[in-house]
Specification:
five-stranded mixed beta sheet; 9 strands; alpha/beta; two-stranded antiparallel ribbon; 7 helices
Length: about 190
């Protein structure tokens, strides 16, 4: 329960006037490569969050600005996750678990095999992928997530609420209600 209270306290400052403040200039998410994340998950026991994006995606840029720069989100991710920012159209190969994933030319742009695997062929940007410490995909959340929604999903998996059998949508509704009751919601 302590992490939830500290998250609410961090949100109070950010949402009390309907603002979503960026994180201070010296605090950023510690993004690593997919290969590094795989190694770190095994050694640290932390889950992985993957921000799957493209360079042309406007909603991806908005989520970067609104959510991935929000103080409470930055702090929660850095404390509880290994974070990966993955361009779904990158041309560089990625090797994980002895398998090499490559860029596949297709039409004007193409796609990366790893993005297609993580998104189960549903190429939607932005998408947020949650992977457990054993490198098994927990879920993919397609679309833009504002700071409160993202923080709710982060805590659902980061605090292992998903293991209780609780439905993520029920949890998110309760999470938003608690944030709203403290006068921090939008």
């Amino acid at each position: 329960m302590k992490p939830f209270i500290s998250i609410l306290i961090l949100l109070v400052g950010g949402f009390s006037l309907g603002l979503t403040p960026p994180s201070p200039a010296n605090i950023h998410i510690n993004w690593v490569s997919m290969e590094e994340a795989g190694d770190l998950a095994v050694t640290t026991g932390k889950k992985i969050i993957v921000d799957v994006y493209t360079s042309w995606c406007g909603w991806c840029k908005r989520m970067d600005r609104d959510s991935y720069e929000h103080d409470a989100v930055v702090r929660y991710i850095n404390e509880n996750y290994i974070a990966v920012k993955f361009n779904a159209e990158q041309k560089e190969d990625v090797t994980l678990g002895g398998k090499t994933f490559k860029f596949v030319p297709n039409g004007r742009r193409g796609y990366h095999e790893l993005a297609a695997t993580m998104l189960q062929g549903k190429m939607s940007y932005p998408s947020t992928v949650f992977i457990d410490e054993k490198l098994q995909r927990l879920t993919t959340v397609p679309g833009y997530l504002g700071p409160v929604d993202l923080l709710g999903v982060l805590t659902f998996f980061g605090d292992d609420v998903h293991k209780s059998g609780k439905d993520v949508n029920v949890y998110l509704k309760e999470f938003k209600e608690k944030v709203s009751q403290t006068g921090t919601g939008k």
